[in-house]
Amino acid sequence: MSETPTTSVRRGPLTGVRVVEFGGLGPAPFAAMLMADLGADVLRIDRPGKGASESHDITSRNRRYVELDLKRDADVASALALLEHANVLIEGFRPGVMERLGLGPDTALARNPKLVYGRMTGWGQTGPLAEAAGHDINYIAITGALGAIGPGQGRPVPPLNLVGDYGGGALYLVVGALSALLSSRETGRGQVIDCAMCDGVSHLLSLFHTFQAMGQWVDRREANLLDGGAHFYGTYECADGKYVAVGALEPQFYAELCKRAGLEAHFTNNQNDPVQWPALKRDIATLFRQRSRAEWCTILEGTDACFSPVLSLREAPEHPHLSARGSYIDLQGVKQAAPAPRFSGTPTALPLPPPKMPTSFIDALHAWSR
């Protein structure tokens, strides 16, 4: 049994874990948000005047912040005082920045040998590109992920910044931090996590390297099983210009799709013949254009045909399934995802809104010194 988030009191499996986040952009704040959602006490260090968050800044929810000018020796000393009582540090600067500030791993671990020091970058701490600027699109480009996404006759399409920043970045940082935290509690020794998005995305692509090793991957977009090449795994336009998604991979689910959609016999006999896929895609596209998205939902949604409507960000929270599960919450008038995943024994709490005012450094240190 799992529970939905409860009240806005700090709860969850990470209750008692203290995280210092050095303010930044992209995957590091998302990693900090995820840990805070799971119950960790996350304290962000921001430059003076930079920490206040608007209510719509969802990735800043669920934590406090203090203002420190890390160009001042006294404020660096204050940051180190907080790190003495922290379990995890999260930073997302270029390699060498924290060292120049006097807050590098050697200094921090000397003050707190059990500290887990999480470093989030795109290229990693080492390598020819380590010092270069970049963003999600650059990090996923060199891994092969970007080159595999998009129409067969068009250019690669950036999959938002989900694959690099969040999939290969923030989530790997959190997994690394929790793994190192378990080790620290067993051994009494902290360590540094070099979390590079290019590494994480390469790791995410393991299934596709398997396909390649088995001779089941064509280095061409929209020509493979999971990239839109197969007629039974893709998206189709409906009569009203809206789209639906089909993912009937297994034979029994494909048979259900064919039966319910009224597909002809030549579909059922040629599911796994890549030579036939282009023609079958054209035929099934013609079929889906004969009805509206709502009509296809009536026929196929909720069955074993592996079907769903393609919804916009605005439509998604109103979908009956997500609504029934409480997958979205309303926090100060801002619709946003509820904490995930869910836990039966240590349910998470409703998130706190993004902070508008800094916490006093003295109060923060006193709270962590108890």
Termini distance? 35 Å
Low-confidence stretches: none
Largest sheet: 6 strands, parallel
| DSSP summary: helix tally | 14
Percentage of residues in strands: 5-15%
Mean pLDDT: 94
Task: Give the tally of β-strands.
Answer: 11
Strand order of the largest sheet: 3-2-1-4-5-6
What level of helicity do the residues show?
25-40%
What's the overall geometry?
elongated
Broad structural category: alpha/beta
What is the CA-atom radius of gyration, in angstroms?
24 Å
Instruction: Provide the succession of SSEs.
Output: EHEEHEHHEHHEHHEEHHHHEHEEH
Topology:
Blueprint: E1 18-22, H1 27-37, E2 41-46, E3 64-67, H2 73-83, E4 88-91, H3 97-100, H4 105-111, E5 116-121, H5 136-141, H6 162-187, E6 191-196, H7 197-204, H8 206-213, E7 233-237, E8 243-247, H9 251-261, H10 265-268, H11 277-288, H12 293-300, E9 307-309, H13 320-325, E10 328-331, E11 334-337, H14 361-369
Parallel strand pairs: 1-2, 1-4, 2-3, 4-5, 5-6
Antiparallel strand pairs: 7-8, 8-9, 10-11
Write structural notes for this entry:
With 370 residues, this protein is α/β, with parallel strands linked by helices. It has 14 helices and 11 strands. It has a 6-stranded parallel beta sheet with strand order 3-2-1-4-5-6, sandwiched between helices. The relative contact order is 0.16. The model has no long low-confidence stretch (mean pLDDT 94).
